[in-house]
């Protein structure tokens, strides 16, 4: 029973309600509130950065090629190459594609686009295009008259809707000295990936895109979908060595690698800054306990005269600080998880109320604020905050154990 006494006294100090102890209770509440804010914001920020990382991998890299194999003269017979590449255990699927740059125009307004020519049957194997457009709409681009899919933001800029006809203008070869090539396409669907791609993306069939290229009888290359996204440079390099001269390759680490590393760096830097907020909240525990020790010198002296050891005196204040840390950290984790789940809707409400858009596709890679809660982040933040609070209790507890009964009771 004697061993439990420091714990009982420490917990009573944490939630003291008597008038004489209201200052202690108030200071404990402030320390807990600081931890809740710091831990909650840290969890929310980390979840948002995780969301950006996930959207980059799943949405952006679900539409643009993870890796490609090209030939400088184009690839006329692409089917044997697709069969050869898909025989590799590191490659899940391969699909032919045509890529060219041009302008899409409606009336007097024109916008730059990246035009992709795809084979719908193969394209669904290497990309997540059917997450953003219906499969039957995708299949319709190779049926009947020339048809095209446009990014939603691009269509909004041009004031284009489904059913309109647009003109595609592709600069001629030889540095633009040759005459540009033009084609007319019917818009059959809008791609709404909520990423930066929506502002420049145009998709049509291989058949309708080939006449616009400098090699009308050959595709630009073959797109690859990999087992492991991060093996892309190695897989491409290995196959280029096997294919020989004339072939070249590219992968997502070159086209979007900087964005991926920027997100990772931002997560680390923002996490560090928010960790400082948690550290400041933990420092409040030191301030609280020091004031408690000063306020409770008389109580400490009486306990010492009743036979309580210095170690038990330390245990009282370690218990109080640990209780503050445990309560604040637990509430902060709960608040952070709730905010992470609601942050996307909260931002939408704020944008609707004030008529603003915080994330625009011409500036940011996404037009919304994603969020993903990871268990490892919750554990890391919770353990770190709790350990900080525990360490913060050691100095005030040691100071309490050094209080001399005679000095403390002299003026009581």
Automatic annotation (TrEMBL):
Under the cellular component aspect of Gene Ontology, which terms does the record hold?
Answer: plasma membrane protein complex
Q: Where are the transmembrane segments?
A: 26-49, 269-293, 313-343, 378-398
Q: Which GO terms describe its biological process?
A: lipoprotein localization to outer membrane; lipoprotein transport
- The ABC3 transporter permease C-terminal domain is annotated at 272-405
Q: Name where it's found.
A: Cell membrane
Pfam families documented for this protein: FtsX, MacB_PCD
The yes or no answer to whether the keyword Iron is present is no
Q: Please state every residue range assigned to the domain named MacB-like periplasmic core.
A: 28-206
Keywords of this protein's UniProt record, alphabetized?
Cell membrane, Lipoprotein, Membrane, Transmembrane, Transmembrane helix, Transport
Top-rank taxon of the source lineage equals Bacteria
Q: How does it sit in the membrane?
A: Multi-pass membrane protein
* Record has Lipoprotein as a keyword: yes
Q: Which InterPro entries match?
A: ABC3_permease_C (IPR003838), Lipoprotein-release_system (IPR051447), LolCE_TM (IPR011925), MacB_PCD (IPR025857)
What family does this belong to? Belongs to the ABC-4 integral membrane protein family. LolC/E subfamily.
In Swiss-Prot or TrEMBL terms, this protein is called Lipoprotein releasing system, transmembrane protein, LolC/E family
Which organism is this entry from? Saccharophagus degradans (strain 2-40 / ATCC 43961 / DSM 17024)
């Amino acid at each position: 029973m004697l061993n439990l006494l420091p714990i009982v006294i420490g917990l009573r100090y944490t939630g003291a309600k008597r008038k004489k102890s209201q200052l202690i209770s108030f200071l404990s509440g402030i320390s807990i509130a600081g931890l809740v804010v710091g831990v909650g914001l840290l969890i929310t920020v980390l979840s948002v950065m995780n969301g950006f990382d996930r959207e980059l991998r799943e949405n952006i890299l679900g539409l643009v090629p993870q890796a490609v194999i090209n030939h400088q003269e184009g690839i006329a017979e692409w089917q044997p190459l697709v069969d050869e590449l898909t025989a590799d255990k590191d490659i899940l699927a391969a699909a032919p594609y045509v890529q060219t740059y041009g302008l899409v125009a409606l009336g007097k307004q024109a916008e730059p686009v990246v035009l992709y020519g795809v084979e719908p049957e193969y394209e669904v194997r290497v990309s997540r295009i059917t997450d953003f457009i219906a499969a039957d709409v995708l299949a319709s681009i190779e049926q009947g008259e020339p048809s095209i899919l446009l990014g939603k933001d691009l269509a909004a800029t041009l004031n284009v809707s489904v059913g309109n006809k647009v003109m595609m203008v592709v600069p001629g070869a030889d540095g633009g000295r040759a005459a540009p090539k033009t084609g007319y396409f019917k818009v059959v669907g809008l791609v709404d990936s909520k990423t930066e791609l929506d502002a420049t993306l145009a998709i049509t069939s291989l058949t309708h895109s080939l006449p616009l290229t400098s090699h009308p009888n050959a595709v630009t290359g073959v797109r690859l979908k990999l087992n492991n996204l991060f093996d892309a440079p190695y897989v491409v390099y290995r196959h280029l060595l096997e294919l020989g001269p004339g072939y070249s390759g590219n992968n997502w680490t070159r086209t979007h690698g900087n964005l991926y590393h920027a997100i990772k760096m931002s997560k680390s830097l923002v996490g560090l800054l928010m960790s400082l907020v948690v550290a400041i909240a933990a420092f409040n525990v030191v301030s609280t306990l020091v004031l408690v020790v000063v306020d409770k010198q008389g109580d400490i002296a009486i306990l010492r005269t009743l036979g309580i050891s210095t170690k038990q005196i330390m245990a009282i204040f370690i218990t109080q600080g640990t209780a503050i840390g445990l309560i604040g950290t637990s509430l902060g984790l709960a608040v952070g998880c709730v905010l992470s789940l609601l942050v996307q809707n909260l931002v939408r409400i704020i944008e609707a109320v004030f008529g603003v858009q915080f994330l625009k596709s011409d500036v940011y890679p996404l037009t919304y604020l994603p969020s993903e809660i990871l268990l490892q982040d919750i554990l890391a933040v919770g353990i770190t905050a709790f350990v900080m609070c525990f360490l913060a209790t050691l100095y005030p507890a040691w100071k309490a154990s050094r209080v001399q009964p005679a000095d403390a009771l002299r003026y009581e």
